[in-house]
Amino acid sequence: MPGLMVYLVTVREEAAGQLIEANPDGPPPDLHRRFTDWVPVRSKEPTRDTS
C-alpha cells in the first residue's frame, strides 16, 4: 500500500497547487482527509503481543 499512499500524496499536492491558482485564499483545509485519510496504514512487520 505504500505506493498508493505516495501517489495520493503527490496528487494531493498537485491539487493544492491548482486550487491555490484558482482561489488565492488557499485550498480547502480538508484536502488531507479527502486524499489520504481513508487509506489504511499497515506496518511491514506484524505486531506481537508481549503481555
Describe this protein with a few key phrases:
mainly alpha, 51 residues
Q: How many DSSP E strands? A: 0
End-to-end C-alpha gap: 29 Å
Mean pLDDT: 79
Structural class comes to: mainly alpha
Strand and helix order: HH
Give the helix proportion (percent range): 40-55%
Q: How can the largest sheet be summarized? A: none
Uncertain segments: none
Strand content: under 5%
Gross morphology: elongated
Helix tally equals 2
Rg over C-alpha atoms, rounded to the nearest angstrom: 16 Å
How would you explain this protein's 3D organization?
With 51 residues, the protein is mostly helical. Helix content is 51%, strand content 0%. The protein has two helices and no strands. 0% of the residues are buried.
Quick overview:
With 51 residues, the chain is mostly helical. It contains two helices and no strands.
What is the strand and helix layout of this fold?
Blueprint: H1 2-22, H2 31-35
